[in-house]
Amino acid sequence: AEATTPTPVATVSQYACQRQTTTENNNKIFTDAFEVLAESYEFNEMEGPCLAFRRAASVLKSLPWAVQCLGATEDLPCLGEHSKAVMEEILQYGRSFEVEKILSDERYQTLKLFTSVFGVGPKTGEKWYRRGLRSFSDILAEPSIHLNRMQQSGFLHYGDISRAVSKAEAQALGNIIDEAVHVITTDAILALTGGFRRGKEFGHDVDFIVTTPELGKEGHLLTSLIDQLEQQGILLFCEHQTSTFDMSKLPSHRFEAMDHFAKCFLILRLENSQVVGGLHDAEEGGRSWRAVRVDLVSPPIDRYAFALLGWTGSRQFERDLRRFARMERRMLLDNHALFDKTKKEFLAATTEKDIFAHLGLEYIEPWQRNA
Ligand code: DCP
Ligand code: MG
């Protein structure tokens, strides 16, 4: 055999914001397993191991090659003993027995089912589980259970909104919202965010940012937009949260805390005829429409770049951006602002590139943020 010079392999960063992660995942067999483990730990409120498996999955997603032996993972960050043991099982047997045990566990299955309902989080799911409820019919038949408005809509439209939204459907919704928002203000700004901005083919909802170039006008924009959708007869559900944004506050340390911008969580009625190539779905049950989950967030224009960066995701990418800012730069980042703790000042940004530059990070394109 010919002697080969080992090609120097660039080290993989422990931070997702220093990696490029497209939607192409070469290690799905491992990352699917890790995600089941992470979710199971989440259901058991074990944040540490949950995050460890999410980080491990994220590292593997960034690799342009498939892991074929454990030796190949030697120089990779965020892979602990447990992660490697699971990978070894999968490499050897094609499956992980630990993951299979979780997947067949009644508690896991039930919490997974309950939290798949719009408006039901792990806390509510757990509460229902502890009361002995195991199925949707158990819940709906239980007279002492009060469902909030969001959960009622979640059950009502369960079939539709648990079905993935396609890129064509997201584009159709973009057109509808674009038209509606420009009826209100000709200079309105609308941007697709979330998974579809990252180039994903399917999503669980469609996320948009809507604002105006005129500071302060964005407040009424969302209200008018909701009225507009209502008048069109396509508003199936709306929960509107008004802005609680306070410029003088420092960026939040807690990642999971919701941002303070005006926003609404919607269920919209999308006609099949509005979707390019969507006609084949009309046959299904003889219906000409489906319900889709849509999130709209409306930041003031001077916060636009932070909101766009924050709502583009992925969640793991966002977590690591904040962790990187804090740990490596002594800065605080959230969906509203970036604060330099050394200089004790806020750093302004009009584009995402400005934010990456402030953080001393190489710019990562939206489609490379699928961490
Ligand atoms: N986000 C946020 N605060 C929230 C909800 C979301 O900052 N309360 C951000 C982080 C997410 C992004 O918005 O990455 C989009 O949220 P989604 O839950 O819609 O996630 P994705 O769009 O990435 O995936 P999916 O295909 O499941 O919709
Ligand atoms: Mg989304």
Mind explaining what this structure looks like?
With 371 residues, this protein is of the alpha+beta class. The chain has four domains: 16-102, DNA polymerase beta, N-terminal domain-like (DNA polymerase, domain 1); 106-156, 5' to 3' exonuclease, C-terminal subdomain (DNA polymerase, domain 1, Orthogonal Bundle), CATH 1.10.150.20; 165-304, Beta Polymerase, domain 2; 308-368, Beta Polymerase, domain 3. Helices cover 42% and strands 13% of the residues. It is built from 15 helices and ten strands. The strands form three sheets. Strands 2-4-7-6-5 form a five-stranded mixed sheet, with helices on both faces. Helix 1 (28-43) packs antiparallel against helix 2 (47-61) and helix 5 (106-114) crosses helix 6 (122-130). The longest helix is centred in the middle third of the chain and has 18 residues, at 167-184. The model has no long low-confidence stretch (mean pLDDT 95).
Number of separate domains: 4
What's the story with the biggest beta sheet?
A: 5 strands, mixed
CATH C-level name of the largest domain: Alpha Beta
Q: What ligand species are in this complex?
A: 2'-deoxycytidine-5'-triphosphate, magnesium ion
Helix percentage: 40-55%
Mean pLDDT across all residues, rounded? 95
Shape: globular
